[in-house]
């Protein structure tokens, strides 16, 4: 079994979306009218949460329409943040199929699917026909230079 398969299996839980929707409902959120901020406490489970995403955005040279690649995008919180708050176009890539399915669903529910897409697979095999200027990744040196020449990597902690 490949390391990528092991990673995906480790993070797959099953019924993740149901658990998230139940938690949102219990918190009094209207599931038919979700905003990306409604999800922040649940879907930014990287170190530092939403605050770390905001700090990262403040350090970047962003402008509306800039294309970002979110490597290891999980269930999509940072990708939705960059689309909603910064006007970026974001592609998320994750090894865990369940994360990709949940991220797509939550992105549709927040009406950000025009600006964010999620792909299942290894970012090391990802090739984009679009120009992507910045990669958000936990491993900028190894991942970014292998994705496309001239790509700047920005570490997301």
Order of helices and strands: HHHHEHEHEEHE
Radius of gyration computed on alpha carbons: 15 Å
Known CATH architecture = 3-Layer(aba) Sandwich
What is the CATH topology assignment? Rossmann fold
**How many domains is the backbone divided into?**
1
Short description:
With 157 residues, the chain is α/β, with parallel strands linked by helices. The chain has seven helices and five strands. It has a single domain (3-155), classed as Rossmann fold.
Would you kindly provide a written description of the structure presented here, covering whatever features stand out?
- With 157 residues, the protein is an alpha/beta fold.
- The protein has a single domain, classed as Vaccinia Virus protein VP39 (Rossmann fold).
- 42% of the residues lie in helices and 15% in strands.
- It contains seven helices and five strands.
- The protein has helices at residues 3-11, 16-26, 40-43, 49-59, 77-86, 97-109, 140-147, and strands at residues 67-71, 89-94, 116-120, 134-137, 152-155.
- It has a five-stranded parallel sheet, sandwiched between helices.
- The longest helix is centred in the middle third of the chain and has 13 residues, at 97-109.
- The radius of gyration is 15 Å and the shape is globular.
- The chain starts with a helix and ends with a strand.
- Mean pLDDT is 80; it is low at 138-157.
């Amino acid at each position: 079994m490949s390391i990528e398969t092991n990673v995906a299996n480790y993070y797959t839980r099953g019924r993740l979306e149901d658990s998230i929707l139940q938690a949102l409902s219990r918190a009094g959120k209207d599931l038919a009218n979700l905003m990306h901020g409604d999800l922040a406490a649940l879907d930014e489970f990287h170190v530092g949460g939403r605050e770390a995403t905001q700090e990262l955005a403040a350090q970047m040279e962003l402008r509306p329409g800039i294309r970002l690649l979110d490597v290891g995008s999980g269930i999509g919180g940072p990708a939705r943040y960059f689309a909603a708050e910064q006007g970026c176009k974001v592609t998320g890539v994750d090894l865990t199929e369940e994360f990709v399915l949940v991220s797509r669903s939550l992105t549709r529910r927040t009406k950000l699917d025009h600006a964010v897409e999620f792909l299942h697979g290894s970012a090391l095999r990802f090739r984009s026909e679009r120009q992507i200027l910045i990669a958000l990744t936990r491993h900028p040196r190894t991942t970014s230079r292998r994705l496309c020449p001239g790509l700047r990597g920005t570490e997301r902690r």
